[in-house]
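subagent[fold] <- orchestrator: predict structure for attached chain, return tokens only, no commentary.
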Amino acid sequence: MASPGFTFEMSGSGRQRTGEIDMTLALPKLGMLQEDVGGAAAAKGKVLLTPTGGDLQFSVDLTDLSRGGISSRKLALLLDTTLEGEAVRGRLRADGDLANQPVKLDGQFRRDADGGVLVPTLQGGWASASVDVTDLTVTPKGATGRGHLKMTRLEDLAPLLGTPLAGALDIDVATEPDPAGK
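subagent[fold] -> orchestrator:
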């Protein structure tokens, strides 16, 4: 399917509970969707179905993105997940720039069949900010893990928030297993 504002393609094959679907979307002018947004986007997705679950791979590449004075020359996002029964695991990544500052995010996650969520690692940074989460586990019985959030110049947020800020932020969070999950 194609028009002057976008191109969408989808193909696939399968039978019963197995198969695969490939999708691509090209938006050469994001302003066609929302007038005050500039830039272009390209997205690719793949769904693989198996009798016990499946895989989803999804990526978005944004170029020359702009809106309200905030811009990004290049931003790439990737989501890669696997479903096995009622359990899900995956990885999320972002790389590029935002508001003329490099941005990077890389994290893994898992949701067990019992509803527990595990984030073995989540690391990222933008401007003077950094985040580092390790072994975060949230289950019906409690939470454990640790994380560190640091931003040495809060004024880096001004272009995104539209208001001036000053100061710094340095937060460590750690949990210990106990019956209350604190």
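orchestrator: received. Logging for downstream: The mean pLDDT is 91. The CA atoms of residues 61 and 94 lie 10 Å apart.
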